[in-house]
Fold:
Amino acid sequence: MKLKLILATITLILLSACKTLVPVMDINNHSVVKKTSVENVEKAILAGASTRGWIPRVQKPGHIEASINVRNKHQAVVDIFYDAKEYSIKYRESNGLKYDAASGKIHPNYNNWMNHLKNSINAELYKL
Structure:
């Protein structure tokens, strides 16, 4: 009986230590809510990303690369493509987030970061 209890406890500890990987979430063709210029969309993306601790860099008109480094343990890089009507956020690469290219899965915190990034960009777009 004691052996079963010990084995069950060890199993629970091991399972709780492992977070399940989830499919990588990309933001595809998210609509810009107000009619505006591509320059204003770019400014909103830059401001929204910076608000969340991302480091955005304009690569060329319509394309921003943004990176984040959390506690010097977890890094992610995304590509943000945009025009005056919509934007998309696409996974590029990461470190420390257990990304599995074969399954397209990653640590769930990455998707939380994507939601926060999207919400921050949207907040800036609403200000236009």
Remarks:
- The chain has one domain: 21-126.
- The two ends are 66 Å apart (CA to CA).
- The first strand starts at residue 22 and ends at 23.
